[in-house]
Amino acid sequence: MKEIYLDNSATTKVHPQVQELMVRIMNEEYGNPSSMHKKGLEAGHRIQEAKQRIAKTLHVQERELIFTSCGTEADNLAIIGGALANQRAGKHLITSSIEHPAVLESMKALTELGFEVTYLPVDENARIRLGDLEAALRPDTILASIMYVNNEVGSVMPISEAGALIKKKNPRTLFHVDAVQAYGKLPVRPKTAKIDLLTASGHKIHGPKGVGFLYVRDGVRLKPLMPGGGQQRGMRSGTENVPGIAGLGLAAELACKNLTEDMDRLYGLKEYFVQEINHIQGAHVNGFAGRDSAPHVVSVSFDGIDRSEVLLHGLEGRGIYVSSGSACASNHPAISATLLGMGLKREYLNATLRFSMSVFTTREELEYTASALRELLLTLRRFRKG
Amino acid sequence: MMKFRVFLIKYAEIGIKGKNRFLFEDALVKQMRRALKNVEGDLRVYKQPGRIYAEAAGDCDTDEVTEALNKVFGITAICPILQLPDEGFEHLARETVRYVEEIYGQDCAQTFKVNARRARKNYPKTSQQINEDLGEVILDHFPGMHVDVHKPDILLNIEIRESFINLYSMEIPGPGGMPVGTSGKAMLLLSGGIDSPVAGYMIAKRGCKIDATYFHAPPYTSEWAKQKVIDLAKIVARYSGPINLNIVNFTDIQMYIYEKCPHEELTIIMRRYMMRIAQTLAEKSECLGLITGESIGQVASQTMASMMVTNEVCAMPVYRPCVGLDKQEIVELSEKIGTFETSILPYEDCCTIFVAKHPVTKPTLKHIRRSEVLLSEKIDELVQTALDTVETVWIKAEE
Lengths: 386, 399
Prior knowledge:
heterodimer, A: 386 residues, alpha/beta, Aspartate Aminotransferase, domain 1, Aspartate Aminotransferase, domain 2, 2 domains, seven-stranded mixed sheet, four-stranded antiparallel sheet, B: 399 residues, VC0802-like, Rossmann fold, nine-stranded mixed sheet, six-stranded mixed sheet, 39% helix, 19% strand
């Protein structure tokens, strides 16, 4: 059976060149970058090289990057570390209601410490409204955290406009962007968008799991969350995950090298897939479907389906792997805040699948997927609960 | 704390099995060896007349040993013992004092009784003399302790054996029951819920080996649900020994019933086919009965009327050890045996996917048989296909 992997927003397969580099480092350049001998220096060079590669893709400086164990850790460091270091200026935070749990739970933890959080609603296309943001900004707002691309439906937030708005109101308010679903998929420019803190993760861009980074604009103060040996200028203690960091660096370079061409190709595929979906009876694409959305995510709700999970396993039976809701935490089926927030009809909340593509996705795979969907829907709609 | 290296194993029911007694003891020894295989201390299990011992070659941890032996049915108690060579009464008295001091402390203020028994009758003192003399020694050394011959806090057992003396006072309760392998084999219908693993445990406790059957319904149930059942079987296997788990693809049968029969009868008819299939598999693997986790009145398919109707398709006995237990009692047992956490993982199982809003609670054989006639065209073929495509997983006891 062929394997069609359309769950790239959950995770991606590791690029062969990245694998090769990581294996070489694990075998040969296995030193600790803090060691004083040659082996340590060698490992240190690999970290430097990764920073150069990533800095180039973002047009930022190398010293503005901190490596973490994952996107969740980077979000935590940005939000909790940022809030704790700047709480004298105020205790008000802003975020959207459809963020990743790493952001929402960090906010919740801060609420328990006496911070106040404003959650921005979203429109029917899962985007925040700038008017709501403007209204929420206060003199004591110290940090606003807004995701770049929503992980469930692929909506793109007005990040540059939000950055301009935040800085116009108060240049000292920190702007954090969770770009886990955007980095390597869309051009991300922290300086242009006035972003102070930006999160990305390795395994969403054909890099390894267990590594991510946080961009921290020069001059931004954070309170480190992990006491320890003082690595990475004390911002993130712990021996650096050298193979992971090197893998992330190379994956970032590869993802951004031909970004314009890759985006064009993915938008083409998306357009094709959306067209196919629109030909299926009772299938509805959620949110924007064109160039105003992320190139790799398509969220679809289906009429006459009791549980999207059954459709998911039906596709699985045909070698096609997708997600229902958001995969990062969807072992426990809970109502999606994103789908709810964009005002999706009740019966669709548990009848929605996410298809997410990568540069390895082909038109044939999407064609096969659409026809598998057609077949499955016929059976599943015939056999319903009740 | 005193380090023990020898454990005396007490067993009850198997002591009364007459000429078959050695068979039961051998089964117990075998199960104990299995349970102790990966316990630190290189434990040897051996029989002596009327006694089974586990003895460590090196250091072992008493808690680890008792935890392992607590999964061996047939054991009523595990006694960590001090095994002494017979070097005269003075030596025994010194060791007894050391034992009491180490276990209960110099300032022990509990009541006690010495209980001596002699397997070797030529020991210079009678049992009664040993009781009195050792009692005196203890009273001399531990001013806080008093004798209570009726309900002592500490019962200090002294066993004079042929070549050594056993000294012990602690009895850690074992699981009871009979050693697995002494009663034949039964087929457990394992669903992934809370009840069926408990039912398997309870029947294994009566000395039965277990095989299991799980009904898988892709795409309505997931690989995760299947893995959950495999994980549950692994936990049950810690007690029952290896389990041959049959995974039956039930989707087509279920859909066919759904299509042809009245919807409110779906669950009952489905369960009748599950029983039929499990019975066929049971016959193939020489099982002598089926086991289910049913409890009277728990759900619509477990009313007395429903169970009468599902039972009708079975020629072999269906053992339902949970039948008289309340849900809470079953939950407590599942927590005790360690299956609860796995059982409550939220994956859909095949019994709930098509359940009707108002399933029948008082089905009659007449009606159900009439509905099953509607299936006559294809059902035999579907059942045969399900039997032909069974996937079997050999579940070894998880260490």
